[in-house]
Backbone:
């Protein structure tokens, strides 16, 4: 779907216009033309984005931005597969018809940086006092940097949330309490489960990361595999037992799409997944728990509560864009303090501390949810997967012991095998990175 605003002289939004009058200047992005000179004024600024609530919300304000820069804006909204395929085709061909890119900093930024596809934004974000780069949450801000260069700006953030049945149980504060309550409440003869969550080999790694961190583990330590260490094995065993003894049958085949409806239909006491999906449980068309669902922070393990806090989507500039200055102006506008507060007030979690500290931006969330998100936005870890070029392959290796634990198999031997495989993978991945 491609959307081009057709009336750049439409009346602007007064509150944002007043607040942002000083924010669209700033330094120019060096080397604004990728060759062939500056495009004509009739050439639109082209934004390639995921079809997401954030991009849909920003699209409504494009006329205001067009009026500011005197140029049309074309925003293409694609599925994740379409977006990935378009980037692969166009950027491999050094195409100049992409200016602003919506990217997943944790999934593809390292690869895009390796390929030279993203422009360096370091001087722009750090040298602009009005933009206030330090206002961005620490973990998402750190994930925007590759090889000491800022290559993207986070616009949507995500954390894990403990969804629970507040009519059945109080929110557990620790992982030990979660395990005890999940095992106690599970009643498989009645088709009721103490816990439901992702169990599919690769897809489960994201949610398992918070368990790993809270047991004191890490995917890598000083560039070496950490998944064979005692802390990681304990996290594997815990997660496996939780789903094996308190979860539904067939858990190893469950991704978000299979796990979420089980909780929404009132068939589970606990569910850990992204806070972004909370509206599914408040929608009476798909949920039977809208009056009984509770929202709590991720429980503490031996190393404390260490949930991930990630930039699920960010904005970058194509290295081949011939409108880099205008592209930066768009990013600066779309990720400004004023716009982030406005969008977060509409229920889209942003990446700025000032927005998270403003009660008005949290009014659209249920109070218990807002408190949980606020706490985890301050303390979360900026990774929910290993920081490698070949993310999919890495997740597949790391997911093997997860599946073993869910199937009730001994985790230790499988984890040690996966650790050796992951260690070899990291050597090869680093060689590709340095090539």
Residues:
């Amino acid at each position: 779907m491609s959307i081009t605003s057709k009336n750049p002289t439409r009346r602007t939004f007064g509150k944002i216009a007043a607040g942002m009058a000083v924010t669209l200047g700033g330094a120019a992005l060096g080397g604004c033309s990728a060759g062939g000179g500056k495009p004509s004024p009739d050439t639109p600024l082209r934004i390639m984005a995921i079809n997401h609530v954030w991009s849909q919300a920003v699209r409504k304000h494009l006329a205001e931005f067009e009026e500011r820069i005197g140029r049309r804006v074309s925003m293409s909204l694609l599925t994740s597969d379409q977006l990935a395929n378009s980037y692969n085709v166009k950027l491999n061909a050094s195409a100049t018809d992409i200016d602003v890119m919506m990217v997943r900093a944790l999934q593809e930024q390292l690869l895009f940086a390796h390929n030279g596809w993203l422009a360096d934004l370091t001087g722009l974000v750090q040298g602009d006092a009005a933009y206030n780069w330090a206002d961005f949450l620490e973990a998402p801000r750190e994930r925007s940097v590759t090889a000491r260069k800022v290559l993207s700006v986070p616009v949507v953030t995500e954390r894990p949330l403990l969804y629970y049945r507040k009519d059945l149980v109080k929110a557990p504060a620790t992982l030990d309490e979660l395990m005890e309550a999940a095992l106690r409440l599970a009643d498989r003869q009645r088709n009721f489960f103490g816990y439901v969550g992702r169990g599919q080999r690769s897809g489960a790694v994201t949610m398992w990361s918070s368990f790993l961190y809270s047991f004191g583990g890490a995917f890598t330590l000083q560039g070496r595999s950490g998944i064979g260490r005692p802390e990681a094995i304990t996290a594997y065993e815990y997660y496996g037992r939780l789903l094996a003894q308190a979860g539904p049958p067939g858990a190893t085949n469950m991704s978000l799409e299979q796990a979420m409806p089980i909780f929404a239909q009132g068939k589970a006491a606990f569910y850990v997944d992204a806070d972004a999906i909370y509206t599914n449980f408040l929608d009476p068309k798909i949920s039977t728990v809208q009056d009984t669902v509770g929202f709590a922070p991720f429980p503490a393990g031996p190393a404390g509560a260490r949930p991930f806090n990630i930039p699920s989507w960010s904005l970058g500039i194509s290295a081949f864009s011939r409108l880099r200055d205008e592209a930066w102006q768009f990013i600066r506008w779309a990720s400004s303090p004023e716009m982030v507060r406005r969008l977060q007030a509409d229920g889209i979690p942003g990446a700025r501390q000032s927005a998270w500290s403003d009660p008005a931006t949290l009014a659209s969330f249920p109070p218990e949810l807002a408190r949980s998100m606020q706490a985890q936005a301050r303390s979360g870890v900026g990774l929910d997967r290993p920081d490698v070029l070949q993310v999919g392959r890495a997740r597949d290796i790391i997911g093997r012991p997860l599946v073993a634990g869910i199937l009730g198999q001994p985790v230790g031997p499988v984890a040690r095998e996966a650790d050796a495989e992951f260690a070899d993978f990291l050597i090869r991945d680093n060689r590709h990175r340095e090539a």
